[in-house]
Amino acid sequence: MDKDFKFTNAVVILPLIFVVVIWLVFWLEVRFDYDFIQNGIYPRTFSGLQGVVFSPFIHADTEHLYNNSLPLLVLLAALQFFYPRKSLKVVLFGILLSGILTWSIGRENYHIGASGLIYVLFSFIFFKGIQTKHIRLIALSLTVIIVYGGLVWYIFPTPDVPGEKSISWEGHLSGLLAGFILSIIYKTPEYKKVPKYDWEKPDYNSEEDKFMQRFDEKGNFVNLPVVEDEIILTYYFSNIPVSYEITSNEKSESKPES
Cα–Cα distance between 137 and 129 in angstroms, integer? Predict the structure, then answer.
């Protein structure tokens, strides 16, 4: 199973491409003085559906962009390294699913930023590692929860403070739910433990195991019952009477004359 954990160029390229794209979009917004916020998710409106695709690439300012860039680099690299066969699907369908959920439950305001995708990655990596029961993936899940566990607090409703930016807790919650759903949908048979012993196989029957037969119902070790061997006669037996004649042990030759 450990042979599946291989470092490839995609581990670096995928996170870099995504982060470069969101920075490029922000640069275009500043350079040409264009406001992309209206292309974000606006819940329960037809025009707001465009944000399902575009919102992860739109950010309000450099602080918002910077706060999302570093977690994206780390989590996308971890996803590509440990789940290379599922990484693109998780990213693409994670964006769509979290966006649709945000569009469904969000407040009537524009929801932008890649934080929804960050929660998708955080949720998928954590729950998938627990589900696989692979020691390295479980360790990855624990690492993620230690480093980014504080993200969980931002999935709950927070009051809007005048003069401060509001946080899209709906987008965070949607990302967390989307990551959990994807962790159940996408299976990882490559990390399934191969049975090494007979008792690890699904068709194992303890009643046919010679070793388990040495224990009674209370778990006490007992000797197996002695099986008596079948008696096989090694001589011929007959009920027909046989008579024997005894003769002297002498030769029946005539003696030579002297």
Answer: 5
Rounded distance between C-alpha atoms, residue 22 and residue 118, angstroms: 13
Strand partners, 221: 215
Residues 6 or more apart whose CB falls under 8 angstroms from that of 224 comprise 213, 214
Dihedral of CA 112/115/117/119: which sign?
Answer: negative
| Residues 12 and 73 sit within 8 Å (Cβ to Cβ) | no
> Can you list the positions of beta strands (E) in 147-212?
none
Per-residue confidence (pLDDT) for residue 196, from 0 to 100: 59
Note the helical H segments in 109-228: 115-132, 135-148, 169-185
Tell me which DSSP letter residue 8 carries. Answer: -
Q: Give the distance from CA 31 to its chain's centroid.
A: 43
Q: Give the closest residue to 142 by CA, choosing from 127, 132, 154, 120.
A: 127
Helix (H) or strand (E) holding 157: none
pLDDT tens figures, 99-124: 999 999 999 999 999 999 999 999 99
Is residue 127 over pLDDT 70? yes
Q: How many CB atoms lie within 10 A of CB 195?
A: 12
pLDDT attached to residue 180: 97
- Cα(88)–Cα(170) distance, integer angstroms: 24
Distance between CA atoms of 144 and 139, rounded to whole angstroms?
Answer: 9
**Tokens (6 digits) for 258:** 């002297």
- Res 65 pLDDT > 70: yes
